Known about the structure:
With 663 residues, the chain is an alpha+beta fold.
Amino acid sequence: xxxxxxxxxxxxxxxxxxxxxxxxxxxxxxxxxxxxxxxxxxxxxxxxxxxxxxxxxxxxxxxxxxxxxxxxxxxxxxxxxxxxxxxxxxxxxxxxxxxxxxxxxxxxxxxxxxxxxxxxxxxxxxxxxxxxxxxxxxxxxxxxxxxxxxxxxxxxxxxxxxxxxxxxxxxxxxxxxxxxxxxxxxxxxxxxxxxxxxxxxxxxxxxxxxxxxxxxxxxxxxxxxxxxxxxxxxxxxxxxxxxxxxxxxxxxxxxxxxxxxxxxxxxxxxxxxxxxxxxxxxxxxxxxxxxxxxxxxxxxxxxxxxxxxxxxxxxxxxxxxxxxxxxxxxxxxxxxxxxxxxxxxxxxxxxxxxxxxxxxxxxxxxxxxxxxxxxxxxxxxxxxxxxxxxxxxxxxxxxxxxxxxxxxxxxxxxxxxxxxxxxxxxxxxxxxxxxxxxxxxxxxxxxxxxxxxxxxxxxxxxxxxxxxxxxxxxxxxxxxxxxxxxxxxxxxxxxxxxxxxxxxxxxxxxxxxxxxxxxxxxxxxxxxxxxxxxxxxxxxxxxxxxxxxxxxxxxxxxxxxxxxxxxxxxxxxxxxxxxxxxxxxxxxxxxxxxxxxxxxxxxxxxxxxxxxxxxxxxxxxxxxxxxxxxxxxxxxxxxxxxxxxxxxxxxxxxxxxxxxxxx
Length: 663
């Protein structure tokens, strides 16, 4: 087996397009091998995991040499599939053997290639990721990478969730700004084109200020001698239209005198305002801007709110814009050209914001493609446990389509009925841990599927704070094969390969536990040591295969002669032991079992092409409660008794420590 030709990393050559850098960043955050291709299918970027997996030199040429990482028997099929995907513009999933540098071997992997479209719905590039397909063969230990895989999943999860949070925050921000600017432009357009008298003009402005800012009230005050007159008002000050206040001692009067925008973040701490009047209308904060006609301040536009520090710089800017409109209406000073230019500028700004929102949404689509191309099942849910996302791998793993599960409780979909209470408890513990900032957790649990029944899965779950609540995302993996292999290995460690009986290791544990039970319940215990009389002759005359058949039949007859609660083990060769517990009269009870076994062995054994007759000899050691004998001592005593039975002529049993008790 030879190593494939080395490739050059895609970091060389021309710099990637700005839109491609986003995809490269996502690829770099993935723990599994990933690469990007142009619309023509030529690979132009591979992440670090790909180079580490294949062992490709980062200084070598790229081009089409990546084919050499594929097994020769798989190249034609992969090339044909790749060509068909480019022609159809649809995603592609392939399984093939790929060179694995660390093990110096070919390994089966599954890759998913997803098309990435540009603004014209044309395929701009392809994004591919791959995961290793675990194929467990008899006698081959599976790779142990659970911790690393979990860390990789956690890294992918953190990266993708960070991207989603960033995208959501930016889209919310720009949508808010877009809506706000749209209101401003709509107001400006309406006022610029409508034929309204001055009072209607000002009324529209103060009403719109309640929509454009967090104000609870807005008012236009015009100066009339030493007084300020409420000419238009909305919100909490709407009933006060026509009210007259002295210019002196008010924030509005000070604004008229200075010609400056004045802010009072907390009116209860501001000596410039009339605190009694503010309490009457619950004005805890306010902003006042001058209205100018022909360079002279003729009044103010004021907004107020029921909370301190309610207004942002953006609100102040909006107030200035509206004040400018009122000043223009009052003084007829704002020319058509100036209004047109302002409208065009605001329209251009709106279009720029719309383009940014569209770009962010396109980024969201690309992120979605990454999730869809992942080899792991992915889901997300809200704090109520309702599923909010479900990728294609989740459909394949569990059987339900995305449309079937969205909005349903996760427990109803994935958790067996008998385990839902335990699941609820585990989720409650996780939420408690979340409060302590432990935001990620890996757990193993049993899940139900639509068609395959219950399967064991591994779940890596992450909580993300969203305002006062949390959102949860999880990657899930079917670990049925791993569990079956673990069970097989555990069984192999404790059982004899030929007969399937517990082995010496399991026997030692069984005797130790049996002695403890005998002491606890104050009942005797017997240990029987057996072997086959004449086994070597069968092996020599008829071969080892016939001997193996004989041993399996011998073990079956022992099992049929004892109780279901008794333990039968094979120590090796033709040596077997039987552990009898809970005996009232150990010697008599053991004798009954020994006689049954000896009688069973007198029957002929049918082997391939021959029938043989063999017998068994048995040595018995007895344990009296609290006598202090160990498992090793009992086994040695039974062994000595076995050889005493053989010396006495075989096909009989003997008791340890009693040379005369040979039957």
